[in-house]
User: Which sequence fits this backbone?
């Protein structure tokens, strides 16, 4: 497998508004090509509502509308990209091309230094299916014959604990002061209403305020605000969510085992 090449991905935003990236520019180009939001939505694989919302976001972001549309819904009406919209498309492509050339030069310099650009790319663009990913600083490592206990500072008042193999701790060079990611799958997070008043076997106990709750047919997603701009997401059964009766603003406690915390290097 060859190394991935570095490529720029430009994002535009104004304070307090949504971010605009390549996907929205492709939608704008599709509107210019097809002359309607419905047809543009089909060509880029979006629902009509998602495309309409995307165009609305674009129009809100800039002083002049980038698309003008006539009513007609999913099966009618028309849309036209304005001169401001065509200027946005051209400018976005020009800037992204300049950035891509700059990253290509960086890629070549990394190769000259015998660095793996694929590793650099993974560090820059790490994605994970784990809902809870926290950048932490290791505050202590207790080594054992088989496993090591790693303690990490999450916030000023919260320490996370992970149990990993001693071999992993050694190979990763984990020591006090090392920056790491702590990853915890949302279904591993156990919730209790209110603050915990009795000891539990789980090493990690975090109290916060319910920021949101979204119920599905089988499961419920509950997000706790734990302070310092950080949140913990838990997936519980809908029956458990109803029994807990947690609502936004309620105090709740999240618990998870140290063995359920995955430690990764940035």
Assistant:
């Amino acid at each position: 497998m060859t190394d991935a090449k570095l490529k720029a991905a430009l994002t535009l935003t104004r304070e307090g508004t949504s971010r605009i990236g390549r996907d929205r520019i492709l939608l704008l180009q599709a509107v210019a090509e097809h002359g309607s939001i419905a047809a543009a939505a089909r060509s880029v694989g979006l629902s009509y509502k998602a495309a309409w919302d995307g165009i609305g976001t674009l129009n809100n972001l800039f002083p002049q509308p980038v698309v003008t549309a006539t009513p007609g819904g999913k099966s009618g009406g028309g849309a036209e990209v304005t001169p401001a919209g065509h200027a946005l498309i051209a400018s976005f492509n020009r800037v992204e091309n300049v950035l891509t050339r700059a990253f290509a030069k960086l890629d070549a310099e990394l190769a000259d230094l015998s660095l793996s650009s694929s590793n650099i790319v993974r560090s820059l663009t790490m994605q994970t299916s784990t809902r809870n990913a926290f950048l932490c600083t290791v505050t202590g490592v207790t080594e054992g014959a088989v496993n090591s206990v790693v303690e990490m500072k999450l916030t000023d008042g919260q320490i996370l604990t992970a149990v990993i193999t001693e071999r992993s701790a050694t190979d990763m060079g984990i020591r006090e002061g090392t920056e790491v990611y702590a990853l915890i799958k949302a279904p591993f997070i156990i919730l209790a209403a209110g603050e915990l008043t009795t000891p539990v076997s789980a090493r990690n106990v975090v109290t916060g305020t319910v920021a949101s709750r979204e119920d599905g047919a089988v499961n419920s997603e509950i997000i706790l605000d734990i302070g310092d701009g950080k949140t913990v997401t838990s997936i519980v059964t809908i029956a458990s969510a109803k029994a807990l009766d947690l609502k936004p603003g309620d105090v709740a406690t999240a618990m998870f085992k140290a063995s359920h915390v995955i430690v990764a290097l940035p």
